[in-house]
Amino acid sequence: MKDKFVITISREYGSGGGEIGRRLAAYFDIPCYDKELLTMVAKESGYCKEYFEKYDEKPLKVLSYFGYDYGSNNLPINHQLFLKQFNLIQKLASEKSCIFVGRASNYALKEFDNVFNIFIHGDFEFRRKRAIIEHNVKEEISASVVKKIDKERASYYKYYTDSYWGDAKNYHLCLDTSFMGIDEAVRMIIDFVEKRYK
């Protein structure tokens, strides 16, 4: 590929967004950053990754934020994590071609050129079954887990971007993997990127 490019993938839980990101990264031989961002931020901050994991892509409770000084190091962990990931996403995108999964990366890179923003979604039952098979979620709680994680991601995106997660206006391409399958979604993205950035 001649030109540097960045792909951001927002995804409903169980829709295959993470898998799509990894497969694209393997095809283009570029890095894919998903939970790897947590490891990088934790190392930079001197915390262990597990400390940040429970706050990853979780909305900040508005009441818990009251009274904090924006310019201080005393911000809530959620907010510290968002800001550190936001800055790291911008830094990495300015250096090389790469892929980001989640973490409002399309918002972090809204002023960047050569960014292709994708939203991956799917039928609820398709996603519930994938959560069981791919993420080892117990069947009896699979429906509630899918709903809970989707709700958290939507709230997180709304809080930090003041926009709506999944709104087609925020993405260049929205793909339904329950309709087309993951293989076809990957093929379509590859086709677009190769035509635009070669």
Automatic annotation (TrEMBL):
It is an enzyme of class 2 (transferase). InterPro entries: P-loop_NTPase (IPR027417). The keyword Nucleus does not apply. Its EC number is 2.7.4.25. One of its GO terms (molecular function) is kinase activity. The keyword Kinase applies. Keywords: Kinase, Transferase. Gene3D superfamilies: P-loop containing nucleotide triphosphate hydrolases. Transmembrane segments: none annotated. This is Cytidylate kinase. The lineage of its organism: Bacteria, Bacillati, Bacillota, Clostridia, Peptostreptococcales. The gene is cmk_2.
